[in-house]
Amino acid sequence: MDTADYAIRIENLGKEYVKGVKVLDGVSFDVLKGDIVGYLGPNGSGKTTTIKILTNLLTPTSGRAFIKGIDVTKNPKEALRSVGALIEVPGIYDYLTPNDLLTYFGKIHGMDKKKIEERIPEVLKKVKLQDWQHKKIGAFSTGMQRRLAISNAILHEPEILILDEPVIGLDPKGIKEIREMLKDFQKIGMTIFLSSHLMHEVSETCDKVIFLDGAKLLDYDTVDNIKGRLKAQVIVIKFLNPVTPELLTQLNSMELVGSIERRNDDVLIGFDGDYETSFKILAQLMAMNYKIASFAPEEANLEDFYVSVMSDERGVSS
Q: How far apart are CA 156 and CA 147, in angstroms?
């Protein structure tokens, strides 16, 4: 594909803040138009630095960043014309109303007065703040403030939305609202690139994920593919029989069982993750006349994958 076929392209990106200390080291990836891509990694891994380079707030030490085929460093005004961004925790002006704030930023985007007046009710409706257009922002909850910041990012109808930790500090209800909002944006064709350290939320929101650590890109794949690459290594069993110490001892003595843990009324069996092994364990339990209400391998998640990737990268046994 040509560079212009991608919403975002990063080529061999490097950044040093202090000579010899690399914050980004040869990072390369592409984001296809219409995707929601999560940029995952611990604090200090280089996520925010990447986003600041993408939005021309920082200049890379090496490599290049493109938005829709346009070099961000060489032609930032043109590259960022189709971008909306929320970077770190936005400043809140308590004495303003959403109407005041969005009018101000609409002018910065070069929108005419009529367009601004049309767009403000539209974007506030998208973020479920239509009834708060003329209320003081100082009375807003954290979740409302974050939704307002996103409304500002989409005010000028961008094709690409770049978000740095969009749900940080939010309660579960607020996180769910942001997730649903981003899915709605995708339905109208928007490309979304978001950084986070909350892996469960990313798995619920994103199509694809990029894993970053130690200034380097560790992996990039679809969420479904990553889950498929990981074998479940725990079987959760619910017995109709009472879970007694004798039962646990007997389970622990089984050849194919690696570990035993009790979690409330469930028993968690550690095993090698192979489907054949899972079948043999179930067959043994049935042969021992245990009454089993449920028997299910526990689904592996992005956090499990990230830990496994980190272990491989650093040569640590898991």
A: 16
The residues with which 21 forms a beta bridge, in sequence order, are 18
pLDDT tens-digit profile of 49-72?
A: 999 999 999 999 999 999 999 999
Report pTM: 0.79
How many C-alpha atoms does 296 have within 13 Å on its Cβ side? 7
Angle between helices 113-126 and 172-187 (to 10 degrees): 120
Specify whether the CB–CB gap between 292 and 236 falls below 8 A: no
The 10s digit of each residue's pLDDT in 178-225 is 899 999 999 999 999 999 888 888 888 999 999 998 889 988 999 888
- Residues 248 and 261: beta-carbon distance below 8 Å: no
In DSSP notation, 44-78 reads: TSSHHHHHHHHTTSS--SEEEEEETTEETTTSHHH
Q: How many Cβ atoms from other residues are within 10 Å of residue 16's Cβ?
A: 15
Helix (H, G, I), strand (E, B) or coil at 104: helix
- Starting at the earlier edge strand, list the strands of the sheet with 36-40: 83-86, 160-164, 191-196, 36-40, 208-213, 216-222
Cβ contacts of 116 within 8 Å, gap of 6 or more: 102, 103, 106, 107, 155
Residue of 155, 297, 172, 304 lying closest to 227 (CA atoms): 304
Q: Which of 152, 128, 122 is nearest to 141 (CA)?
A: 128
